[in-house]
Give the backbone structure.
Amino acid sequence: MIQKTLFSFIVLVFSYQLSAQKTTPTIKNEADVPSYKLPHLFTSKDGMEIDTSSEWERLRRPEIHSYFANQVYGVVPGQLDFHNVEVLDDEPAALGGKAIRKQVNLNFKKGNKSVSMSLLIYLPAGKKKSPVFLAYNFKGNHSVSPDSAILINGKKESELSGEELKKFNVSGRGGRTSRWAIDKMIDAGYGLVTIDYNNVDPDKNDFSDGIHAIFYKTGQTTPAKNEWGSLSAWAWGMSRIMDFLETEVLVDHKKVILFGHSRLGKTALWAGANDRRFSIVISNNSGCGGAALSRRRFGEKVSDINTNYPHWFAKNFHNFNENETALEVDQHMLIALIAPRPVYVASASQDSWADPKGEFLAAKEASPIYRLYGKKGIVMEKLPPVNTPFHGSVGYHLRKGKHDVTDFDWEQYIKFADQHFQSN
Ligand code: GCU
């Protein structure tokens, strides 16, 4: 009895602490940002000073990467290649004739479990090979364009059950067109490869489905503390799509640009840090756990994100709730892991939850690593005015407006890609 009471008391204290954490007020004014010191990019754990890009590659980069993998996003517990590719659609004259449209399923299998990734691909017609933007979408491939031939989760509307019609929100066809400047991409000579991120791992706090479950050892039901949360699973998915793009003759696989918005911007940065085959990485309004510096605690904090989205990061990351200073990294180091490949961080002026200034500062603080490679990092000291893009090897803009992806953003990304591909 006494033991039981003691146990309930401990549970009570513990849950009180948890709820107290949840209620830490959101910092909305710059004056309330605590003073902080960022961990050093140039000093290795055992105190070695890094002076060259080869020392960075050999000594410091691997330890930072391993820290992010084990303490923040979670390590991928194994390897799995796609089992086969099913071509579902190959239309040479889509979008009024200016694009090729392909739809394929990448199928993964292990034991009695399987996962299918349904890709939608538009490529400029008449080109031998095209650079592409590779990007997850939130609401299904059919949301990115009104094109009625876009399959819904790899199926025709007529093949869907009543339940599937609801689940995949068929009426949302074309509903997110404004976020995908497909015409601009095609006109500029770029393709788009997109897939619903839920295909890889459904975005809910449930580790019984998606790609996690395929990797479990016998008896395992959730990832270990240092193993992958959903962001890491989505990042893994990007690399598997890259495996497929390397086999696709119409795609210039040396020119694959990773793009992601918001949680998928966090994903893009982590995927870009993991896989050097991505030649440019773009994070749009990625905020906490993406481009924004955690130590500023402005807008969304580590404790907020781990409370509201407990499945996104490795369990180990929860140890840093209300305790960012204990982290051996901050998000400028994530951006630095992408060097020397071009990286673009974009913010929106009304998106204070994502801390635009923290996103800018992380891009700026990552820049010295770019300079080690002789590349141009951010040169401005202060957050630039709205709609004033800066395009070095580290790019940045603060778009006027809310948390979103707009034509203005895409115009900058296309220019940025043009600039880098032409100079190489
Ligand atoms: C929430 C979350 C953010 C995330 C965003 C999104 O606002 O707090 O961290 O970036 O959703 O992905 O839309």
User: Anything to note?
Assistant: The longest helix spans residues 2-22. The chain is about 30% helix and 20% strand.
